[in-house]
């Protein structure tokens, strides 16, 4: 894998991706942050050697390099998921490439369902811990020690300083930012009533189908990591209604201005 990562990184360097400081992964319905970036270079995923290609219609497929708040950033406009048929190594390949390009910090966004019924759709949740329910690990492959420790410590996968800054920024800007535990499932089907009850029992505040693999790999690479969820639906098993995916996308879009404020301000502070 190291050979492939080097090939990809060399290609991107030739395209002008010059020593980014911060990597950003934009989740479902959260692509508008790119409008805040002074773009220097952008490349479609399907043009990048060894890169997966986004297959979900509401995920764009571009890697963008530019400046925001005076910092050099590399942005994934659209991510990859296990439910698209990829392996965990595929899903996390871009994080390894961003690490090779030189990022020190990874900021992640996603859309998720609220298990904690004190949280409402359209609100944001700062992830303070997670539960991996995807059935595997992105570190479970031969040669993983080439990239760092195989047995990665996950006692504090989300950077405490970054999370403290997010709290402060949210308070300053009157943004209602919850904190909680994110459970990552395989998907793509949504959960049954019984599954929502189980998730609540084991301590999840929100559930989604991404993020955790990227966080695990970022920790292996010793990156500073933070992640924020947009809560797009309320997962009340006693009053469960069929989910409308278009409504989820609309709810993500509604919360996007607050997400952009959080991300711009955190980037300024790094």
UniProtKB/TrEMBL annotation:
The purine nucleoside phosphorylases catalyze the phosphorolytic breakdown of the N-glycosidic bond in the beta-(deoxy)ribonucleoside molecules, with the formation of the corresponding free purine bases and pentose-1-phosphate. This is Purine nucleoside phosphorylase. Pathway: Purine metabolism; purine nucleoside salvage. Gene3D superfamilies: Nucleoside phosphorylase domain (3.40.50.1580). Its EC number is 2.4.2.1. Belongs to the PNP/MTAP phosphorylase family. GO terms for cellular component: cytoplasm. Pfam families: PNP_UDP_1. It comes from Aurantibacter aestuarii. GO terms for biological process: nucleoside metabolic process. Keywords: Glycosyltransferase, Transferase. InterPro entries: Nucleoside_phosphorylase_d, Nucleoside_phosphorylase_sf, Pur_Nuc_Pase_Ino/Guo-sp, Purine_phosphorylase. Residues 21-268 form the Nucleoside phosphorylase domain. GO terms for molecular function: purine-nucleoside phosphorylase activity. CDD domains: PNP-EcPNPII_like (cd09009). SUPFAM superfamilies: Purine and uridine phosphorylases. It is an enzyme of class 2 (transferase).
